[in-house]
Predict the structure.
Amino acid sequence: MTIIISAQTHQELFAEVNETQQSNDPDDELDVTWKCPQALGEGHYRRVELRQNLLLEIENYQRHDNLIIQGIDRPHPLEFWFMLSGQWRESSVWAVNQTEPGQYGFFGSGMAVKGEDKFSQGRQLLVGVHLQPELLQSFIGNSSGELPKPLQHLVRQPEQPYHFRSHLMTPMMKYNVQHILHCPYQGIIKRTYLEGKVLELLALLLEQETEINLASRTHKPLKSGTLERVLYARDLLLQRLDNPPSTAELARLVKLNEYALKRGFLLVFGKPLFAYLHDYRLEQARQLLETGEMKVSEVAHKIGFASRNHFAAAFRKKFGVNPKEYSMQRKHF
């Protein structure tokens, strides 16, 4: 069964069930939870206003049915969310966008036109962040608020369609999302902790967005559509860090021949396919070790090394220090 309602009706249903807002934290009146209306499912929506123009939300529902929300033309803020379970699909006259479990959705600012948001039946767990363009400009803009060229597409005029991109979450993204979901603090310490994790997620997204945008601008020799297939190949490769597909399998999955895939990967990322995977694994390992919360063996397993010794040797070759020594050094900062 599919429930079809307007955005206004969706808001009214939540308002009827939640006449009195429930504080999630007695020391923080800006951390509020709403119950899901029974007609739509079970669960809750949590909203934490971290600072002016920066909002964290956590949606944790068990939907009884598919849900379609019919929207209206409206200004859209910058927004990103991480879909741990569930599925979202947006259809409008401008585009069809979607996110799957294990992916993030990154929205720029601009205009959201009338369309439909479809959420799948079953469990939905996502962590989302809303921020206004002026906040992003204050973080990474120049003295006039202008963003770096590879990121200027994220802020558009109110009458322009917003930018959207979905990609796989990296291990560090997943790490930060889990820490947001299991924040052990309350009050002002909680707010500081959550804001730090949110800004770290933003930095990871901006890094990936810059890389993708520079690739699309720089590598014009690729045929039309090949760049998208190469980027998709990269996503599939990183999705299976512990058991990556062979070049032949990857080429088949993205519908390129092996030569085109290898050439495209070299042009876009500046290194062969599995050299990129190797360096990516080690960089993710370095970031995980910096947290000081995982053992070396746990990090090695998470990024796809079957042998701790092989991982240690590869890490030492790249960074000049053993992973255990690196982890100990970071604890003293």
